[in-house]
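Lecture notes, part 5. Sequence design as translation. It can be helpful to think of inverse folding as translation between two languages: the language of shapes and the language of residues. The source text, in structure tokens, appears below.
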């Protein structure tokens, strides 16, 4: 059995950056609070927990006048979070990925132009909640073309959660243009996501089995799994090596691997080692 790793796997530049900044803060001597999950990966979250970082679901959980730092995750937050942290006297260390920042700015500009801000993304995802906040009450989230029936307004601004697939976004933009006359579209999908998706699909077409390594919380991992499955190659998503099933490997000459943008290299390496031991 041969094992192939996709050209783009492991942390993306945005996650790498957030991870590095957060690690620096754990050495600052101050109490660090993490708002939500820094990235959607349980192994990374555990690592910060072991470094005494306290995860909170909201700023209100932190007592008034607590000395410390609030870490904003790579997925970004709505604008009011910065005000809430300031009011509590917390320092803010912002690891929002620059690609997400760009999408937030576009959402804000669309809202200022009086547009209904259509966000193509996963309902309830942290990044999407942040984008809704920057849309200043004018945001609507849609997951597929069917949801367009819920969109109203004369002027539309449409953008994407950074980890959507380009084909899906373009399909929704075309459908919006058929229904509305004034549609301004901005493709805010990050290049790390599109390159990773292209590399994964490319590899999936050349192997007999595709394994996508990443947390079930991770939107971009879910998307990779969908795209690899669509090639017709048997595809499974696993979070760690412990979820790898021997039966999948029977009769498979070529096994391809890819990972979500928030999957650490050490998790990928364990899967590679296990596959090589079974080869
Ligand atoms: S997947 Fe893209 S948007 Fe998300 S953290 Fe990585 S580089 Fe940033």
């Amino acid at each position: 059995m041969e094992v192939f790793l996709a050209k783009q796997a492991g942390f993306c530049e945005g996650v790498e950056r957030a991870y590095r900044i957060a690690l620096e803060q754990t050495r600052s001597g101050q109490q660090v609070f993490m708002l939500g999950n820094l990235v959607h990966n349980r192994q990374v979250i555990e690592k910060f927990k072991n470094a005494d970082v306290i995860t909170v679901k909201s700023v209100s959980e932190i007592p008034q006048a607590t000395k410390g730092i609030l870490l904003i995750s790579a997925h970004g937050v709505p604008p009011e979070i910065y005000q809430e942290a300031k009011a509590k006297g917390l320092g803010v260390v912002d690891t929002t990925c620059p690609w997400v920042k760009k999408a937030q700015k576009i959402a804000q500009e669309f809202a200022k132009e009086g547009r209904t801000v259509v966000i193509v993304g996963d309902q309830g995802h942290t990044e999407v909640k942040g984008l809704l906040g920057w849309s200043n009450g004018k945001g609507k989230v849609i997951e597929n073309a069917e949801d367009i029936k819920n969109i109203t307004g004369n002027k539309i601004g449409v953008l994407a959660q950074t980890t959507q697939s380009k084909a899906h976004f373009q399909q929704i933009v075309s459908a919006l243009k058929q229904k509305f006359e004034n549609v301004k579209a901005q493709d805010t999908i990050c290049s790390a996501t599109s390159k990773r998706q292209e590399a994964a699909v490319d590899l999936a077409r050349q192997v007999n089995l595709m394994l996508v390594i990443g947390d079930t919380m991770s939107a971009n991992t879910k998307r990779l799994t969908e795209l690899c499955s669509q090639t017709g190659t048997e595809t499974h998503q696993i979070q760690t090596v412990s979820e790898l099933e021997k039966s999948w490997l029977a009769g498979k000459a070529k096994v391809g691997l890819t990972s979500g943008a928030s999957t650490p290299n050490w998790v990928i390496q364990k899967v590679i080692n296990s596959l090589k031991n079974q080869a």
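The translated text above is only one of many valid answers, since several sequences can fold into similar shapes. Residues 2-10+192-278 form a domain with the Cobalt-precorrin-4 Transmethylase; domain 1 fold (CATH 3.40.1010.20).
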